[in-house]
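Researcher: Structure prediction, please.
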Amino acid sequence: MSSVTVGPEATGAQPDWLRRYWQDGHVTVPGIFSAEQTQAAIADAMAWADAFLAELDAEKRAWYLDRAGASGDPEAAARSAVLRKLDNPHALRPLFRALAAHPPLVERVEALIGRGVSVYFSQIFFKPPHGGGPKPVHQDNFYFGPADPDGMVTAWIALEDADLENGCLHYAEGSHRRGVLPHSAPEGRPFDLQIPEKARAGQAMTPAPVPAGGVSFHHGGTWHQSADNRSKRWRRACALHYVRNGNAFATPALPYDHSLVVRITG
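Model: Predicted structure follows.
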């Protein structure tokens, strides 16, 4: 990839996908990963989920579990509970560490935030059929508090097709230019930080379907959310949160384990 200007001034002769990122706060790039890579990632994620679920204590179950088939029989839903997410696969699973270092992905990340990058935090989202719940409107930069807000980008990898029916992401176009708003959490869900309803009233949210193997890149200040999964299909995805080396989660809203930061380049 040729040299590019990094930052909101990335206009003019810059590639169209890069201009759209700085204009809209997000951009989707298809075809970064092959079908073989995404299927291998799903298999590894499910094996990890089975092992994690077997050891999950009762106190954490409410935070980690989704109810597959929740729209049907409650007893069947309880029996088919599956993990909502798992944290830090980039540091804990060699296969996901390799995905984070995949050259076509890293080239795009470095075009967005500069050369020399690390993954600071990551998640696998499972969103099972008929029960994978929504994620309310939020900004990653409120959660992470990076010292340089423009020096962090989320790469949201679709491990299978993400669309309107199974709960794709929705974005507020251009919202990264407004700065970071205060967030709050519902009672009993202290980790579910979100933009309060009054602050987001009337804000249009644009769906952003991503085909399997594609990546949705979004700025840490971009408002985004996901809907619930109303389909018979899974919507598994992996979010890698990259920072430019020298940047850091300086004022995070939640505790993050800095020992799990993985330098990818530089």
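Model: The domain at 33-263 is CATH 2.60.120.620 (Jelly Rolls).
Researcher: Thanks, that helps.
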